[in-house]
């Protein structure tokens, strides 16, 4: 059984930074991709960033140049470094591994 636990969310001022972590437990294979999604109130869940086993990364246009996804396979952990945060980045952020989801972590960007 796979479990994913996100952490690192919180309240930050515009222009600030946060680093989200998603720690996996159970059988985690490094050959699979990881992804971060987010869901703002009243909106659909959207893909933010994605990383393959080979290290290829993809980002939503809205976060390109500001967010960086990375993974530590031995630690079964994926990260999302978020810089220059904007109020529109406010959402619950979820990590995904295959068809498993974490519980989400709230990110609020406000002055």
Brief sketch in words of this structure:
By secondary structure, the protein is mainly β.
Commentary on this structure:
By secondary structure, the protein is an all-beta fold. It is 0% helix and 51% strand. The chain is globular and about 40 Å long. The protein starts with a strand and ends with a strand. The mean pLDDT is 95.
List keywords for this structure.
111 residues, mainly beta, four-stranded antiparallel beta sheet
Give the topology string: H per helix, E per strand. Answer: EEEEEEEEEEE
Class from helix and strand fractions: mainly beta
Mean pLDDT metric:
95
Count of runs of 4 or more consecutive helical residues: 0
Query: Rough shape?
Result: globular
Helix content class:
under 10%
Number of strands: 11
Strand content: over 45%
SSE topology:
Layout: E1 3-7, E2 10-12, E3 18-25, E4 34-39, E5 46-51, E6 57-59, E7 67-72, E8 77-82, E9 91-97, E10 100-101, E11 105-109
Parallel strand pairs: 2-11
Antiparallel strand pairs: 1-3, 3-8, 4-5, 4-9, 5-6, 7-8, 9-10, 9-11
